[in-house]
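Retry 2 of 3 after timeout on previous attempt. Resubmitting structure tokens to design endpoint.
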């Protein structure tokens, strides 16, 4: 059984169904494969600026449209963008509730003001909710995990972390966090059970 003082979850692609790449690809002049679009998203200056809380939504939309060569107005893009996170996977919020009876449970997400507000900042869902746009640091940068450990006041070896991005998992592991790569809630459940957390 895994020792854990804190279970820390990524949101999109782990607990929340996120249609970002499926929705973005049809907007592009030339569709990208799943690996290429994910890599481009993670290194996009517009995305990083918005998810670090450094630029407002309208400026993000303008920069993103120019950067990705999308034929949409900023307003139309933002109207589509707000709907990319669809909500918790079936059973995910109930799972978090069960886990909170035995563990401290938090989230560490690369997010932004629009998507965070859509879910009311996850008020009452987690014991602690951390977002890149509020912290000013972003995964997979080492600073994001160092800041999360400080905010949660817990040593790395007492944290179990789940993320759908391999670079995020590798960075967490390099700092001594027990981290698992899971692609979707269906993939998360067997890991929780195998580690004796459920």
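Retry 2 succeeded. Sequence:
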């Amino acid at each position: 059984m895994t020792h854990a003082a804190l279970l820390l979850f990524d949101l999109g692609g782990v607990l929340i169904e996120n249609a970002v790449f499926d929705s973005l690809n049809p907007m592009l002049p030339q569709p990208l494969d799943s690996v290429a679009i994910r890599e481009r998203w993670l290194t996009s200056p517009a995305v990083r600026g918005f998810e670090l809380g450094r630029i407002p939504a309208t400026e993000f939309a303008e920069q993103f449209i120019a950067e990705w060569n999308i034929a949409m107005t900023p307003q139309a893009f933002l109207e589509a963008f707000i709907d990319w996170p669809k909500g918790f996977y079936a059973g995910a919020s109930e799972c978090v509730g069960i886990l909170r009876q035995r563990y401290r449970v938090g989230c560490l997400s690369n997010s932004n003001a629009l998507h965070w507000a859509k879910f009311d900042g996850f008020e009452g869902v987690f014991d602690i909710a951390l977002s890149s746009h509020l912290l000013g640091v972003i995964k997979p940068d080492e600073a994001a995990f160092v800041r999360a450990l400080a905010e949660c006041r817990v040593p790395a070896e007492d944290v179990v972390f789940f993320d759908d991005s391999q670079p995020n998992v590798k960075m967490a592991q390099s700092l001594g966090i027990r981290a698992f790569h899971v692609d979707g809630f269906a993939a998360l459940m067997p890991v929780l059970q195998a580690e004796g957390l459920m």
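Attempt log closed. The CA atoms of residues 46 and 63 lie 6 Å apart.
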